[in-house]
Each structure stands twice: as structure tokens, then as C-alpha cells.
Design goal:
six-stranded mixed beta sheet; Deoxyribonuclease I, Chain A; elongated; alpha+beta; 316 residues; 2 domains
């Protein structure tokens, strides 16, 4: 009796996972499908577990299904673990850029610890999300290290900000359907570099999902017009398996700094299995990624991302 119940449970579990995996593979911009796709790593664990369970209750066919589903999920994650080729170009150490992206969480008040973290990493530029007026006052104490500081001027709500060791030659703010976006340009002519930062809505509902998609589409429209080497850093609230983010990368030509370095999930910090890579650093082909790692942000439910990027030697 118990074995019969276990076999039925195994079959139902595997069939449910089969439906979930198939749905997650569909390239349609539908809220429920993207939520399933976001659970790519947990699905690997669940599918592998269903295969083991089916073996335990002697359902070999269902075990094959479970292991096959797990393998499909692994294959879909391989691009994150395989580094893109450098086309024979070496990094130019004279044009190195150290980038830090942090969602500090607006209610976080671990100001001293966060400022110490920023100082210890010695970034050239910092992209910040969920910055309120309290955080602006705290960050003002970094004025000696980061003379240039700019923050979301479009609303009083927690927004985005950028700190830099030198002033840009241009600064543009735009409204991305309810949230701010900033684009900066450093240097002139062949030595110019672009830097952008944004924070998209979390897709907690179908309505917010549509708004986030509009934001990412608008962001792609703006960044596709950049003619200089470009870096984008921020919380896009989309995983690498999102069809919307995939369309963004194809339209802009920007690549994820994660390539070859794993999933590096950034939210939430309190879960290992159900944790998602929603914070991103993207870069144009002119850059090579020398380093990318997660950094714990004191008091935040996000990990930050720290990257060292270099321009290719053959630039110009």
C-alpha cells in the first residue's frame, strides 16, 4: 500500500516537473512562464531529486524522465559557466575600470559598514540602488574619494545613484516608466567610455511584469544608441533566463559579465536554493572581464557585484 502510494506520488511529481520545465522553455513574454524560468537552478535540484525518488520506488521510466529534465536545466545554464572567447585580445591595464553595483535596500541603516565596504574595494565607479535621502547624507562623507555624486532627481522615493572618482563630460537622466535611468559619458573622442545604471520594477504581479518589460525595452532603446564602449550596472529584476533580458542583450550587443563565472545569485541573501541572479553588470565587446564576484552588503537582502573590466589592447 505504501509503495503504491509512493509510486503514484513519484509519477505525479515527475509529470508536474515535466510540465513546468516545458513551460519554462517557451520564449513567450508571459508572467507565469518567466517566473518558472527564473527557478532554473531550483528546478535542477527538484528534477534530480524526482529521478532519485523514482529509482527508489523502482519506476525506471519516470527516473529517466527526472534525470533528463535535470540535464535540460543544466544545459540551459552552461552559457553562464563557459567564458566567451577573447578573440586573441589581451586586456589593456592602462584602461582598467573597477565597477561596484549595490542594491543597499532602502530601509537598511548600516551606513558605516557599507561605506567601509566601498572604501575597501576601491572601485572607480559605484552604481547604487534604493538610495533615499538618509543614504545621500551618508554617502556625502565619501566626497573626498568620489568627488562626483549624482542621484535620482525624478522623485522623492528611493532611487538610483552613481559615485565616481572623476566627473563625466555628460550626464543624462531619463524616466523609465516610473523609475529613473542615468547615462554618463567619461572622456572625449576615442577615449570616451559610457556608464549607465537603472533599477527596474520587481515582477511581483502581471502588471509589474509588464511595467518592468517596458522599462527594459526602453533601456535597450537608449543604450543601443551609444557609440562608445559602455558598461551597464544595476538591479534589472530579471534573471539570465528571462526572454526580455535576452532580447535586451541582442538589441544592445551588451554581454553579461557573468559569462564563464556561474550563476552568482544576488537575491535574496537568506536563501541558498531559492536565490536568483537579478543584479547585473553588462558590457560592450570593447571590454574584457578580468574579475567578477559577489560581495555581501551589510544590512541588505542583496549581494553586490564587483567587476574589474579592461578595454581591449587593440581599441582605436
Amino acid at each position: 500500500m505504501i509503495l503504491r502510494f509512493a509510486r503514484r506520488a513519484s509519477a505525479v511529481l515527475t509529470a508536474t516537473l515535466l510540465a513546468a520545465v516545458i513551460a519554462s522553455l517557451l520564449p513567450w513574454q508571459i508572467w507565469a512562464l518567466e517566473i518558472l524560468a527564473s527557478f532554473r537552478v531550483p528546478l535542477i535540484t527538484l528534477c534530480f531529486g524526482s529521478g532519485l525518488f523514482a529509482l527508489f520506488v523502482r519506476l525506471r521510466a519516470w527516473a529517466v524522465f527526472g534525470f533528463a529534465l535535470a540535464s535540460i536545466q543544466v544545459l540551459l545554464s552552461i552559457p553562464l559557466f563557459v567564458a566567451a572567447g577573447s578573440n586573441g585580445h589581451a586586456p589593456d591595464a592602462r584602461a582598467r575600470l573597477r565597477v561596484l553595483s549595490m542594491n543597499v535596500e532602502w530601509c537598511n541603516r548600516e551606513g558605516d559598514a557599507v561605506l567601509s565596504l566601498i572604501r575597501s574595494l576601491e572601485p572607480d565607479i559605484v552604481a547604487l540602488q534604493e538610495i533615499d535621502y538618509w543614504w545621500r547624507r551618508e554617502l556625502e562623507t565619501l566626497r573626498a574619494e568620489f568627488p562626483f555624486q549624482t542621484f535620482d532627481r525624478l522623485s522623492a522615493r528611493p532611487g538610483v545613484g552613481v559615485l565616481a572618482r572623476r566627473a563625466p563630460v555628460s550626464e543624462e537622466w531619463d524616466d523609465l516608466h516610473g523609475r529613473a535611468f542615468v547615462a554618463l559619458r567619461f572622456g572625449e573622442g576615442e577615449n570616451s567610455i559610457g556608464f549607465a545604471s537603472a533599477h527596474a520594477f520587481p515582477p511581483k504581479s502581471p502588471r509589474l511584469y509588464r511595467l518592468r518589460n517596458h522599462q527594459i525595452d526602453r533601456l535597450a532603446e537608449r543604450l543601443a544608441a551609444f557609440e562608445t564602449p559602455l558598461v551597464l550596472a544595476g538591479d534589472l529584476n530579471a534573471t539570465p533566463w528571462s526572454p526580455v533580458l535576452g532580447a535586451f542583450e541582442r538589441r544592445t550587443g551588451l554581454a553579461s559579465a557573468r559569462a564563464g563565472r556561474g550563476t552568482l545569485p544576488t537575491w535574496p541573501t537568506w536563501s541558498r536554493l531559492f536565490s536568483f541572479p537579478i543584479d547585473h553588470i553588462h558590457h560592450s565587446d570593447a571590454f574584457l572581464v578580468e574579475e567578477l564576484r559577489r560581495v555581501p552588503i551589510p544590512g541588505s537582502d542583496h549581494f553586490g557585484l564587483f567587476a574589474v573590466l579592461s578595454l581591449r589592447e587593440t581599441r582605436g
